[in-house]
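Morning. Coffee machine broken again, so started the prediction first thing and wrote up yesterday's gels while waiting. Chain of 408 residues, entered below exactly as on the submission form.
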Amino acid sequence: MIKSVSNKRLALTFIIVTLTIDAMGIGLIIPVMPALIREITGSDLGNAAIWGGIMTTIFAGMQFLCGPIVGSLSDRFGRRPVLLISLGVVAVDFVIMGLAHTMWLLLLTRVLGGIATSTQSTAAAFIADISSPENKAANFGLIGASFGIGFVLGPIIGGILGELGPRMPFFAAAALAAINMVFGYFVLPETLDGANRRPFELRRANPFGALKSIGKLPGVQRLLLIAFLYEFAFIVYPAVWAFYSQEQFGWSAGMVGLSLGGFGIALVIVQGFLIRWIIPYFGERNAILYGFCFNVVIFIAIGLISNGWVVLSLTPLAALGAVVTPAIQSLMSQRAAANQQGELQGVLTSAKALALIFSPLAMTQLFFIYTREGALYLPGAPFLLSAALVCGCLLVFVTRKRRNLTAE
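Came back before lunch.
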């Protein structure tokens, strides 16, 4: 357990850095993935987008399968060993990606990477371990802020390194993961004591068994559905942003990186700072409603506006709707026991991963359909689909059973 404020801060710093590196690992490679896939396959941009969707789906499929397993392992053996081992695997995975010269090897790395990064559920369980009910939403906001920092640094560094070659960002990501593993070895304590550990049960560790167990908690099934739909919509950014912005505006890899960096800065501000005022003032329920409405407006605007500078100015504003995820995560965490936090976060990871399986396929196929020759030209079609999905989230949330979902 954490015995001092300074140790708690160091441990929390490690968690933030770990999640930031996860995001940087994604952000680093987004600007160069079109070029790398085209180099390996010799295909055009539209077909490269389809390969990119397949890679993302494989990655998400492994997270879907392994999220509850890894979360349950952390409920049994503790957060520390699971987190440290995963960082070592992530480092090796990025090295292999940087060396890959066939699509089959590149796809294999997405299997390995999906398993290793399933520890997002363990990092979230760590935060739940050290948080009181009153500050859980704000602390879960640090997860989003960490990803925001990663999306600030990752795409910018990836865009810069991408000018030296499409493989350089992968080696940079590997180095970051290895350095953080060493840092964590010295500063990360164990937050789950023996009294709160539970036996590992495979029937509960698989996604369906874990969902059945967690689904018994009041209101959680509905919140999981909302989290799935919202994640499906939000994935439009990593799924098609690089392809959309190059097609619609002719942006370079560096410009794509800068646009994502602006989004990341806004995400850090919202989830790292503003959320600590927004949720206590409005409450989780009203914050979620506000986030849904804001996202609908932004998705429609990006989908229809053809001026690159206007869309660039809207990109940071899109992060203002990011209060939704930590608020929903807080509501669910408050309903789970101490020895269920890893399992709960694993189920949530699986729900998000399930969205990550299908969303990139849908978004990239939609992009392909509306940019191919002879078709109605509408590169922003995926963003309009996202707007419709968030409307669905809003509908499910406002028709909730009050006895199951009380946010105040």
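The chain has one domain: 5-191+218-398. Going to sketch it on the whiteboard this afternoon.
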